[in-house]
Structures are given as C-alpha cells and as structure tokens.
Design brief:
heterodimer; A: mainly beta; Porin; 18-stranded antiparallel barrel; 3-stranded mixed beta sheet; B: outer membrane lipoprotein receptor (LolB), chain A; 13 strands
Chain lengths: 395, 265
C-alpha cells in the first residue's frame, strides 16, 4: 500500500506539473558538496576505515502557478560514500504540491515538518524519520509522504496530518563507523502492526503565539520512529529493528524574554511496553556585542529526563547539555556551536561536539564538525571520535 | 493617535514657530510628527533590495533581499524579509512585528531544517546580515521612539544642493538602542530624510547614512532608491539599492504569520 500510495502521489504531482502553465515562475537551485570524516582511533572492527570520504548533492526544482496559489517543490538528495554502501543513498526530501488559500493551506506529497524548540533533544518532533546514516546530529530527515491541512485562525494555527507509509531509520553498514559490534539489518525490519511499513499514521498540532510565549500541543498516533532491536542469531548475527505502535501527546513551549529564551518540551508516550513521560527544557541566553565586537555569545543549558530511566532506550534519560553559540555577525556568517553532553547517572559517560561554519566567497560554504565521545564500555561509539570537514558549492 | 496627529498637523499649518531657547524640543517634536504624517497611509508595500557590503580594502559581498511591509496603526509595522542571496541562505526568511519602545516579536525560518525559531529581539543594535546596518536602522520610523531637539536649518546635501533641511537631534528612548544620539537632516518640503549620523554608546560618531534618488509612489509616498552607510570607525560601508517598489498590493495580517513565513518565496 505504501508503494502504491507513494506512486499515486508522485503520479498526481507529475501530472499537475505537466498540466500547469509553464509560463509561470520556475526556479532551479541546489548544492553539491564533498565531505571527509577522519577518525582519531583505528577502527574496532576490521572492515571499518580510518577515513571516509563522500560526495553529496541536493537539488531543488520549484514551480508555481495560479498567482502562486499553487506550487510544486521537488528536492532530491543523494550521497555517495567511499566505503559504506548503506551511507550511499538517495532520498526524495521533498515532492510537494502546496495549495494556499486565505486561511488554509493544503500540502500533498512528500515533505518535512519540524516541531519543537530545543537544541539537544528533539522530543516532540515526530513526523519525519532520522536519516541517521547521513549525520548523527538528528538534523537530516527522510522525506515523509503526507497530506497536511493547515488552518489559520485567530486562536492559532491547527495542522492535520495523514501520513500514509512509514520510513525506516537509516543505519551505517558494515564498513561504516559510529555503530556497535552488531550491524543493523535494515532489510528485515519487523513491525507490531500487521500493515508493516504501510501503516497509515495520523497527527494533529495546534500552535499559537501569545505575546512573548509560543506554545504548541501535538498528538501522534502510528508507527514509532524510534525502533527497538532484536538480535538475530542464526547465520551472521545482526540487529533487527522493531517498530511498535505508539500514541504520543506532545507539548512545546518557549518564552522569549529580553535576551532569554526559556524552552520546554514534554511528551507522554504509550508504546507496546511502556506508558511514560519524557521532559527536556532549559534556556539560551544571548550576550550581544561581546568584548566591544559585533559578535554574539549564546549560553545554552538544557536538561533531559525520561521516566523509563534506561539509556539503551533513550540516550537522553537524565542528562545535561551545556553549550556555547558564537555568532560573529560578519559578512561570511561565521558561526561556532560547541556543546557538552553529560550523562548524570554515569559520570564517565559524556560527549563533546563543535559545529563551525563559514561562507567562502559568495557561493561556497565550509563546515567543520568535531565529535569526541567518552571511551567507555557501555558506549558503543566511544572509539569513533571524528573530525568531519565539508565543502559545499551552492548554485 | 491618528486624530491627535491630524490635530497637531492642523495647528502646525497655521502656526509659524519662532525658535526660542527651550522651544527647540517642541519644534523637533513637531517636525518628527510631520515626518510621520507625510508617510502615513501607505498600507502595504513590497520591494527588492541589493545590499553591497564593502570592507576597508574594497572587497565586495552582495546580498539579494526582498521585503514586504504592512503598516500598523498605533504600533510598529509588520515586516517579512526574504533572502535570495547568498545562495547558502536562500529561502531563509525573517518575520517581525515591531513595537516602538518594547522588544519586537521576531521569528526566523531556517529552510534546511524547516524550522521556525522565535528569536530574541533585544539586540536591535546588532548588525543585519553582517552589514553596517543595524536592525534598528531598518525598522519603521515611529514618533514615540525618540525625544527630539531642533538644531538648525541646513542644506540637505542633495544632488543639486537645492533643498533646505531641518537638522534634528533624536535621542533613542529604547533602552537597548546602540546609539546615544542620532542627528537627522529632513527636507522642509516633503519631510524626507537625506542624511543621518549615528553616535555610539561612547558618544562618538559611528556611522553616516545618506539617501539619494528619491521617487514618489502613489502621488504621495517618497522612497529613496539608494542608501549609503559608512562606518567611520571601521572604514567599512554598505549600500542598498532598491527597485520594484510596489504599494497597495492588498497584503494583510494573513501574509505576516508563522505559516506564511514557512512558504514565502
């Protein structure tokens, strides 16, 4: 059903694309990039590598008609990795027909939706699956098939989602780093629902701004984006992801008071085994014009808690993140974000991360990502401290 | 408020004000009120801007930006700023509801993450897109933002050097303003701003902004095609070139919310 629904959506959109008058706005843009990951330590498993290069490209085709009341966006993405055949992947990040009226909008196709306010732990955000093999920072997402009706009212914006079909999380293959001893077998995922990956999910969100406060309340019913794992013993042992069915009530809140951003996300989730609460919140305080310069320094602190108190189910079960964000406000948009994540229940378990980026000339961007993990028996990726350098050309 | 302004204008049009010591503040206030009145009622507008940043050695960096504005009576305006270039920030958009004396409400849309972020607006004095313009230099003029003092009549320094200007000292009342005072030259016929000098928190001259190539739209509203900002302390400069100014497009509140921020092109 998933394939058929997807096929139908793609066909409908291509049809619209063909029939709509092409005399109207058409735009093409995108980026190509190359990236290399350099690991500090020799790999634990023989098939892995010390260095891993890749090339990537994301294109965007945009077309609108009917006085821009209708538009179509197509955004394919590809990464080709030197070693890891699972990291070499193609995805339709977006293929969306958008119809806009005065007080409602309808999105039909494949797309991405973000909910939430936090930096370290995106608890509430649930529509899209993580493209984890692309980057472990939780930012790349797989395109999700959806029909989304958005109503704009005086009392807020309300969004209804029908989500036909499920995207499985991506994982590194055998030759990839940032994995445990057992490779995740993404070809034989198991599901609680008999519909498997064709299960249709539903979601609803209301969000509103009341003076300095932005508030969102959401509900999701469908396939869990976070899998559990079953060990597959016969033959070569590996991990089989298992996706159960969940109901999730979510709350996101931000108070913007002078230089302070106060943030809170909370969920109540009922899955196959548990019915639990998880909370994450904190602040970001920005000091403007540090040391008589035009640079801004942001101080970030976020605490996360999960009622299940089990680090194998949620890495954010009783953790503190402290971060610094340095924005230079210069012509090259230079930015540095440094974060330190400390597990409060396991004092020896922590990670440290720097993300820095700068524009070169008009069309190039250079980024540096450094990640250091505490080397510890219970941390499967403790050996995989990495430096990632990326150069991208926009057009 | 609008009625008060019209009333004030009516009084002004019948009164010739002698400048006596102590009355400089009153005259400054009246000129500021006239300036606002002369640019009232435009409703909504849209324009394209090319922003050129130059450093001391003359290296250039160019940004393409589109701006939509909605006039709000008795409050600051609503604005939507869309970035087309540099290409790595294409699609980034910025929504602001400005308030003359309080903090503005501001949201930033990051297209790569599809994320709308409410951001702190305390820093109105911070640079806009790495340029020599601060956010507060680009927000709408509101009478309540400053206290005023009339200084002198001077030439405007316009192209043909024909226009006479009022030279006014504006003292920002917003507590987080980056300036201690702003001197502006406003022409005596149409109340257009020709030149602005910005004084930093140490009271020394920081920047000079000059406006040129004024054009009139809808037989009423004057807009300059060129802004030139020079930072005297760093030697850097930023010029803005405006084009395709359009008024009365029928924009309304619905074009200035978090949903429109996400889909604006």
């Amino acid at each position: 059903m998933f394939d058929k629904t997807l096929q139908l959506i793609v066909n409908c959109i291509l049809l619209f694309f063909l029939l709509s008058p092409l005399s109207h706005a058409f735009e093409f843009s995108g980026k190509v990039g190359m990236s290399t990951m350099i690991y500090q330590h020799a790999p634990l498993y023989e098939v892995q590598h010390r260095q891993q290069a890749s090339i990537l490209s994301e294109l965007e085709f945009y077309h609108d008609w009917n006085d821009a009341q209708d538009s179509l966006t197509f955004k394919p993405y590809i990464r080709i990795d030197q070693h890891d055949n699972k990291r070499s992947h193609f995805d339709i990040r977006e293929l969306m027909w958008l119809h806009v009226r005065d007080n409602w909008e309808l999105r039909t196709g494949i797309g991405k939706v973000f909910w939430g306010v936090n930096e370290s732990n995106h608890l509430v955000d649930i529509i899209n699956q993580d493209d984890q093999v692309d980057d472990i920072n939780g930012e790349p997402k797989l395109g999700q098939p959806m029909i989304n009706l958005s109503l704009i009212r005086d009392w807020g914006i309300i969004d209804f989602f029908i989500l036909p079909g499920f995207r499985e999380r991506t994982f590194p293959g055998e030759e990839g780093r940032l994995r445990g001893f057992l490779v995740v077998d993404t070809d034989h995922a198991l599901y609680e629902s008999s519909a498997g990956r064709n299960h249709t999910d539903f979601a609803l969100r209301w969000n509103h701004t009341i003076s300095d406060f932005d508030i969102g309340v959401s509900y999701f019913q469908g396939t869990n984006r976070d899998p559990r794992y079953k060990i597959n013993v016969p033959g070569k042992p590996d991990l089989i992801p298992y996706y159960d069915q969940i109901n999730q009530l979510g709350l996101d809140f931000q108070a913007t008071l002078e230089g302070w951003l106060w943030k809170l996300e909370a969920i109540q989730r009922k899955d196959e085994i548990d019915n639990y609460t998880a909370v994450s919140g904190g602040f970001e305080y920005t000091i403007n014009g540090i040391m008589d310069s035009s640079s801004d320094l942001g101080l970030i602190a976020e605490y996360s808690w999960d009622e299940r108190n089990n680090p194998t189910l949620n890495q954010f079960q009783n953790d503190m993140m402290l971060g610094l964000r340095l924005g230079f406000n210069d012509a090259q948009s230079t930015e540095i974000l440094a974060g330190w994540l400390q597990y409060l229940d396991y004092s020896e378990l922590r990670s440290f991360q720097i993300e820095a980026s700068r524009r070169l000339g008009d069309d190039w961007k250079f980024s540096l990502d450094l990640r250091i993990f505490s080397d510890n028996k219970i941390n499967p990726i403790g050996n995989d401290d990495q430096l990632q350098l990326t150069l991208e050309r926009y057009f | 408020m609008k009625i008060t302004l019209i009333f004030l204008a009516a009084i002004l049009s019948f009164t010739v004000l002698p400048v006596i010591a102590g009355e400089a503040e009153d005259k400054g206030m009246e000129i500021a009120t006239q300036r606002k009145l002369h640019d009232q009622g435009w409703g909504d507008s849209q324009a394209e801007m090319v922003m050129t940043l130059r450093n001391k050695s003359g290296q250039k960096s160019v940004r393409n930006i589109r701006i939509k504005n909605l006039e709000v009576e008795n409050d600051g305006d609503k604005g939507l700023t869309i970035f087309d270039r540099p290409r790595d920030v294409k699609g980034t958009a910025f929504l602001s509801f400005s308030h003359p004396l309080g903090n503005d409400d501001q949201w930033l849309y990051l297209p790569a993450l599809k994320r709308v972020k409410r951001i702190s607006s305390k820093n109105k004095s911070g640079p806009f897109m790495g340029s020599e313009f601060a956010y507060e230099d680009l927000t709408s003029f509101e009478v309540e933002k400053y206290s005023y003092k009339y200084l002198a009549d001077e030439n405007c320094g316009d192209q043909n050097n024909r226009l006479k200007c009022y030279k006014i000292e504006n003292t920002p009342l917003y507590k987080h303003s980056g300036y201690t005072k702003i001197i502006s030259w406003i022409d005596q016929q149409e109340y257009r701003v020709y030149k602005v000098e910005y004084y930093d928190r140490k009271k020394s001259l920081l920047k000079t902004l000059t406006f040129s190539n004024y054009k009139q739209y809808n037989n009423k509203f004057w807009r300059a095609d060129n802004y030139q900002m020079i930072n005297h302390q760093t030697g850097k400069s930023t010029s803005l070139t405006w084009k395709n100014y359009q008024f009365s497009l029928g924009l309304s509140d619905k074009d200035f919310n978090k949903n429109s921020l996400k889909r604006v092109r």
